[in-house]
Amino acid sequence: MKLKSYFIETGFALAFIVALYFFLPEFKLHSYYFWIIVLLISSRYGLMAGVLSGVVCALVFSILLYLSIDKKALETFWDMKYLLEPFLFIFVGGFLGQLSQEKINKISETETQAQLFTQRVSTIETEFSTSEEARRELEKRIVGQLTTITTLYESAKKLESFKLSEIYFGTLDILSEHLGIEKCSIYILENRLLTLKARSEFGKLSEGEDKTLSKTEGLVGIAVETQKVVSIRDALSSLEFSKLKGGPLMAGPLLRKDGSLIGVITIEQIPFVRFTPYTIKIFSIILDWLSLSIENATYVQAVQSRNIQDEILGIYTYGYGKQRLKEEFLRSKKYSLPLSLLILRLKDFDQIDSKKLIPLFKSLYLILKNNLRDIDLISQYESKDSLAVILPTLQGAELQKIKLKVIQDIDSYAFRPYEASDKLLESEILEASFKPAMQSETDLIQDLGAAPA
To answer: Which of 34, 94, 220, 251 is placed for a possible disulfide with 57 were both Cys, Cβ 3.0 to 4.6 Å?
Structure first.
């Protein structure tokens, strides 16, 4: 279609110029008539059209020019002054056509991409419509279970605690409220015996008594060995009823990630209508929840007992600082070595903006660290508004020098941590040094004028 268009348009324009030349005596031949054709055609249709229009215009212009030259000057027609412009028609038409062709190609690519995008959107709309129908169908199925799932989720949040007793009671609550279990117990493995830790009877929770179970006998033994929930129905095929009589109706093991045994939950009484495969499946899920919660709580407690540094501030904990002070005091007492204790206390602590508290303590820690020796120790103190610094083998003038430098550095930073933003930080440094008459680190702390730790 475009091929026909620029052929027709170029031919029509040239025919018009030729007609004016032959039938209009006052018409004067000028090259700009042909420039208009070349520029318009090459700009609109691209490279091929530009070259073709340039060639045709050059040919027609040369013929008309040849006819218009005086007969005496025909021998000069082949001079460059007559041939240069026709060559320029071809060159400019090709050059401008190439520039236009690049734009035309980009437009074509964009149109192709737009078509593909439109097809993709159409496909997505179809898929979305199908998904909406599936969603509505699914909503109809789960709407009746929504309340149960919501309440079960709320109950499961009870297992987020890191206190084992709370985790035990939270689990028994879930079993009682959502599975209708009337009597159940939690046993934890201690010294190779399953020890009762918590039990529930008709919704009433109580802590464990001095009761233990064997992990190798009866229904509990099967659950531990197979590492899955076992009911009395399953066990009757492999054990005599006499061996199961008086035992639980269901038992499930609590397992760590590595498969080792944590404990067992036993179900002693459950309504007959609740004793279904669905109950067993939910019971298995609750066992997994409880196992993970116990393992996490145990890990956290172990980490906390070993942790000697505050994870946020990077400062030694008060407990570790207290222990180190005791050790350093005994060393100073035994070998008559110098020992000093500094307490950096923040005034008007209750007025400090809580959002600025952690950055402030981090800054103070760095100030202290930059002025202390490698053997000195910075820790939290008994009161939250203070930091303690233990300085072994140091007291007297050297201690005063460090103390003065710390005060100057704190003042130079001009901290404004209080809720009243214009108020500068106010602090004080209490000090105490070892004396031979002191009998314990408590005497050193009392010498600060602060309450004993």
So the answer is: 34
Selection from 238, 265, 226, 225 nearest residue 249 by Cα: 265
Q: How far apart are CA 29 and CA 203, in angstroms?
A: 111
Q: How distant, in Å, are the alpha carbons of 77, 200, 346, 347, 411 from that of 351?
A: 102, 47, 10, 9, 19
CA distance linking residue 174 with residue 155, whole number of Å = 6
Could you report the per-residue pLDDT of 57-112, keeping only the tens digit for each? 878 877 777 777 765 555 555 555 567 777 777 777 777 877 887 888 888 888 88
The fraction of the chain above a pLDDT of 70, given in percent, is 83
**98 vs 448: CA distance, rounded Å:** 90
Q: 406-449: per-residue pLDDT in tens?
A: 999 999 998 988 887 788 899 999 999 999 999 989 999 998 85
Residue-wise pLDDT for 35-60, tens only, equals 887 777 777 787 887 778 878 887 88
Of 119-133, 135-149, 286-300, least confident by mean pLDDT is 135-149
Q: Which domains does the chain have, with CATH numbers?
A: 2-113 (no CATH), 161-304 (3.30.450.40), 318-446 (3.30.70.270)
Using CA atoms, how far apart are residues 343 and 407, in angstroms rounded to an integer?
12
Instruction: Count the helices and strands in the chain (H runs, E runs).
Output: 14, 11
- Between CA 34 and CA 41 the distance in angstroms is 11
Contacts of residue 448, defined as CB under 8 A and 6 or more positions apart, other chains included, come to: 341, 343, 430, 431, 432
> Which helix (H) or strand (E) covers residue 99, if one does?
helix 80-142
Q: List the structure tokens of 184.
A: 């159940």
Identify which of 229, 182, 238, 191 has the alpha carbon closest to the alpha carbon of residue 210: 191
- Cα separation, 283 vs 178, whole angstroms: 10
